[in-house]
Write a structure and sequence with these properties.
The structure holds two protein chains of two kinds. Chain A is of the alpha+beta class. Chain A has one domain: Beta-grasp domain (Ubiquitin-like (UB roll), Roll), CATH 3.10.20. Chain A has helices spanning 8-11, 26-36, 40-44; strands at residues 3-6, 19-20, 55-59, 62-63, 79-84. The radius of gyration of chain A is 12 Å and the shape is globular. The relative contact order of chain A is 0.27. Chain B has one helix and 28 strands. Chain B has one helix at 136-139; strands spanning 8-13, 16-23, 26-29, 39-44, 50-56, 60-66, 74-76, 101-107, 113-118, 122-125, 133-134, 156-162, 170-175, 178-182, 190-191, 214-219, 227-231, 234-238, 246-248, 257-262, 270-274, 290-293, 301-303, 321-323, 330-333, 339-342, 350-353, 359-364. The longest helix of chain B is centred in the middle third of the chain and has 4 residues, at 136-139. The chains are: A alpha+beta, B mainly beta. The A-B interface holds A 9-10, 13, 39, 42-44, 46-50, 52, 54-55, 84-85, 87-89 and B 56-60, 62, 75, 78, 80-84, 96-99.
């Protein structure tokens, strides 16, 4: 099962531990992680389901560039990390 | 009429919600709620329920609610657009269907919350912020697709006036998209901009209601048919609930600005904070003043006592001029973090701080 981890910049708003979640795609894994912390969804995704402009999602340390399509296939040992992009002021 | 003195001034800033409390006559700046977070709107109901709208730089718009007049807070639902349609008239809508900012927030006496947003979605909540509904009757009007950004990339709704006589009558103002009114609690809308003139537009379009940029509108609560508008092209006033707007001769030093506050009881009286011009959005000539009319806009007094009178660059945004229920206690907050309070209807001002973050919204409680 892939792991999903949210950086402290996010968990300071919505507590959420590192989790192992079911999910064949990135979108499914994120949805599984939001199950433990429903409020986190609105911090990571906008209301159209896209990754927010100033949030960065990595899979195995590789930045996911497409914010709208989260159908990237995941392997069972993949590591998803969600961080605050270093933008804004 | 004797009114209770205003005791707390809530200051929504780029770096938190700051309570400023009146203590033995002096106003003292307290520690911020939501330190570090941009607060774009704040409203406090008479029952002590308060809402603060946050615009987190990275994580979107959030709404927090307090049941104890701001002592403690919990996050509730924030206004959000429905899923953007992939077919029909809005499939190619260039406006993003994502809330960037809560720009106007009002609590109506019938229990309904109204939120005006950037982009220009209007939302209501009838369950105290547990859920929000887009007012589709306004959003789906074909005119909405013609609205223009005014200071931001997209149009937004910043002013929401709930008629004190009838909470189903609501007037909203859009930058840039005119003034719209509903008399059936949001089921239907009509543009009410007759008399407004956008002097910077092509001549053929200057009186187009849908192109007007009312920077801010306010209403005399005791005479709700009297509306004041600080427009991009000057000051307008209506005495018939917005059916017809009349231009007000621009006061000195300028008729340009963003904020307006109507006196709560005297329909002849209102305050403005002029900026130099569209091209120079700062204190005219480096001198910060507040203008006041007591005769319906026929003449203005210019108040500068206690305000910076040279080398000042302060700009007061739409929601950063507040008047207390007494009609005499006023506050202004600037984009460069200055905060002033007047106890005598704006004639003399005391500086509370010059060191605050940029100020978006002020509310007396």
């Amino acid at each position: 099962m892939p792991t999903v981890e949210f950086a402290p910049a996010l968990t300071r708003h919505v507590p959420c531990p590192l989790q192992r979640v079911d999910g064949a795609t990135l979108g499914e894994a994120l949805a599984g992680a939001f199950g433990a912390a429903p409020a986190m969804k609105g911090y990571v995704l906008d209301e159209q389901g896209c990754v927010r402009k100033h949030v960065a999602v990595f899979v195995n340390a590789r930045l996911i560039r497409d914010r709208a399509r989260l159908d990237l296939a995941l392997q069972p040992d993949d590591k998803v990390m969600v961080i605050q992009a270093l933008t804004g002021g | 009429m004797t009114m209770a003195a205003a005791r707390t001034l809530w200051v929504g800033t780029r770096k938190g919600l700051i309570p400023v409390r009146q203590d033995a006559g002096a106003w003292r700046v307290g520690p911020p709620h939501f330190p570090g977070e941009p607060v774009t709107q704040f409203v406090l109901q008479p029952d002590g329920v308060a809402y603060a709208a946050l615009r987190l730089g990275h994580f979107g718009v959030k709404l927090w609610k307090s049941a104890d007049a701001g002592a403690s807070w919990k996050e509730v639902a924030a206004p959000a657009f429905p899923t953007r349609p992939t077919e029909g008239p809005f499939k190619d809508d260039p406006t993003p269907w994502t809330v960037d900012q809560v720009w106007g927030l009002e609590a109506a006496p019938d229990g309904r919350l109204w939120a005006g947003c950037l982009p220009a979605g209007l939302f209501t909540s009838d369950d105290g912020g547990a859920s929000w509904q887009l007012v589709a009757s306004l959003w789906e009007r074909p005119e909405r697709l013609e609205w223009l950004g005014g200071g931001y990339d997209h149009a937004g709704i910043h002013s929401i006036l709930v008629d004190p006589r009838d909470p189903s009558h609501v007037t909203v103002a859009v930058s840039s998209g005119g003034v719209w009114q509903t008399r059936d609690r949001g089921a239907s809308w009509s543009a009410t901009c007759k008399g407004m003139v956008a002097g910077y537009m092509p001549p053929e379009r200057r009186e187009d209601p849908n192109i007007q940029d009312p920077h801010r509108i306010d209403q005399c609560r005791a005479a709700p048919d009297v509306l004041w508008c600080q427009h991009h092209s000057g000051i307008f006033r209506s005495v018939d609930g917005g059916a017809r707007w009349s231009p007000v001769e621009p006061p000195q030093p300028s008729g340009f600005g963003f904020a307006v506050a109507a006196h709560p009881r005297d329909p002849q009286r209102a305050w403005f904070v002029p900026a130099h011009s569209d091209a120079q959005r700062m204190a005219p000539g480096g001198r910060m003043v507040v203008t006041e009319t007591r005769d319906g806009g026929a003449s203005f007094a210019v108040h500068g006592a206690g305000l910076p009178q040279h080398d000042a660059y302060h700009l007061v945004y739409r929601h950063a001029l507040a008047v207390g229920d007494d009609g005499e206690t006023l506050a202004i907050g600037s984009t460069t973090g200055g905060l002033w309070v007047s106890a005598d209807g704006g004639q003399r001002w005391d500086c509370i701080s010059r060191d605050l973050p940029p100020i978006a919204v002020l509310r007396f409680a």
